[in-house]
Amino acid sequence: MAGLATRLLIGEKVLASLQSQDSALYTKLTDPTNQKWYYFGVLGPAIGDFVPSTSAGFGAPPINPYLSIWRQVLRIAVGDTTTPLPGLVPTLQTLTGIVNQMTTLVANRDFNGMIALKNSGQLNAVNQASADLTTILQFFTNTSNLAPITNLIQQSNPKINNTNVLVPEVFWAGRDWLHWKHSGDFAAVLYQSALARGDDRYLAYAVGWQVAYAALVCSSGFMNSIAGTTYRTYWWRSRWIELVADAWVWGYYGAGATIGREGPEPSYDQWTSPSCALCAAKLHAWVDLTGGADPSTIAAAVVAAQPLPAISDIEDFATNIWLPAWKAANNNPAAPIFDAAGLSTAHYMLWLVLWFQTSGDVIGCNPPPGAPPKSCGDNPTPPDWIDPTKTNPVTGQPFQPQQPTPKHDPNVGEVICGAILAALGLASEFFGGGLIGAGAIAGGIALIVDGEEQLNWDELECQLYWLGVYLYNGFEALHKLTVLAGFQHPYPADLAASPGPLSFGIADLNFPAFGDMCRSVSLYSTLTPWGGNLLDPGSGASAPGSLDWTQYPKWSYETPVSNVWLWPNWWPDTFIDNNSNRNPGGSAITTPPSSFNAGVAAPFPPSVPTAVQLITTPQTSLPNWNLDGDRGLGWLAWTLAAPYTTNVTPVPGS
């Protein structure tokens, strides 16, 4: 299924088409009061991932494992007062802020600015950030502290695959209800209900949901082919592939690329403009109905399991439109999956996930530092400590900058360099080096401004440059880890050739080239469920391993065999707007197949024109497609007739 960023891009393109095809509706949807509701609707059934319900008496993991996983991820991002675990986001913001200030002051040879920096009181914050980084390091040195995340990933395949008991629908997760039960009925009833209410905000949401319905139907077969199976049988790889495809889609359209014989033109290494990268696209702002809430504050409340502030507009919408429409579409089910407060909370979580992934406030875009300044001389030799992922062969420990030994001679560059090296030492705390006292930073800066004004600015500028290289390398490693884990999008540069294995104080891991992963393959059936393995150890004793969801799965097919995708070597644009003119369409999204498990013989048309057709020609009923594209292309909703076996026994599900 298309990822969150891809859905929002599809929604943006739908708006552009409506400008010429239905200008009155376009004006209504793009009104600032309504547009965020529209984009919230475009995320569609993803809201089911975060409905905070539980399955009483049915065992662990909880019914909403994705919510539980993101609580643990946000715990790392913003901290946990019960540990106490400091927050990575505020700590890094403090440190990068002070380094950026120093870089600017040195570039401008601004001695008075250095004095002002000392007098500003920011050094106290830097000292606290240093102590916080020490705490973070000590906490995560023990890998068992990551067990809550890894256990949930391993144990949380959808309950429909239970081999011991036929799982009643009351125990399905919210996302499974919205993808597998009355998907077309709900899209149609939601639209008609919002239209009857006469509130343009709610109508915008319902129109957005129709975009999501079209996007999921038109994309799922393609996305399953590049994942190698469906969400039901390999949930974490499916989510990981969504992030990979999101990065490709955003970069491709941001670069204004086309598809040539060998792939996109211009090539990946030229997707360098800010519009090509999701790392600072700020997509959380597109759907922000929180009334100006601070993401870090809300994330901290999520981590602490505190009630979140009610979003009254969402709760009103849920009470009067969303919940009645869902109940009507599903024939008034008894399952207590959704309620108004839960939908408000789910909105917060979708907003926080987009903040974590695209705000630039967490890992960020980490631009390369560029060439050394002239002050470093011609063809300077980099210090051996600039890459915190490498190991010193003498000590067996990660390289780290030398500890500061400033001289009390104001005419010597080490006066200022003492402060810079102190900052380098602080960075090495986070990236694996030895611990250096927090007071070294304050002491180093004090030496700067208490000395004479005759300073070796050139030497200082060069030291700051190598600090930037060090920080870049460290954050690049952090970025790669979050990408491999399935919590962050790749950068456009990651779509090109693989940079080689990643070393970061753990076993070497393959960091693949992501671009070719986005090209479709022929897939003739879904696979048996993932066993929950985390690491493929590689082909030899010294070969780098891989997190196994980063590899195309190779295990056995489910039976009976069903066609998942038949068209190899297409790119994601073919399910968006068919920019490369490869997708002939042929299967109408409004026409169901002859039976729930017959599927369709031709691909669906691209998402954008399909959604525009749905919106401009509203339907009173729509087929109840399985929005996961499971078990094959164009299957209608289904469920199991008996506990799961490799020989699947599906029956109609709506």
Main sheet characteristics: 2 strands, antiparallel
User: Percent of residues in beta strands?
Assistant: under 5%
Determine the mean pLDDT: 84
Radius of gyration from the alpha-carbon trace, in angstroms: 26 Å
Order of helices and strands: HHHHHHHHHHHHEEHHHHHHEEHEE
Total number of β-strand segments?
6
Shape: globular
Helix content: 40-55%
Termini gap: 20 Å
Number of alpha- plus pi-helical segments? 19
Structural class: mainly alpha
Strand order of the largest sheet: 1-2
Low-confidence residue ranges: 55-61, 402-443
Strand-helix topology:
Blueprint: H1 4-21, H2 23-29, H3 32-43, H4 65-78, H5 88-107, H6 111-119, H7 122-141, H8 147-155, H9 174-180, H10 183-197, H11 200-227, H12 235-254, E1 258-260, E2 263-265, H13 295-303, H14 312-329, H15 340-358, H16 414-430, H17 439-450, H18 457-485, E3 535-536, E4 546-547, H19 607-616, E5 638-640, E6 650-652
Antiparallel strand pairs: 1-2, 3-4, 5-6
Helix pairs in contact: 1-2, 1-3, 1-11, 1-12, 1-19, 3-11, 4-8, 4-13, 5-6, 5-7, 5-18, 6-17, 10-11, 10-14, 11-12, 11-19, 14-15, 16-17, 16-18
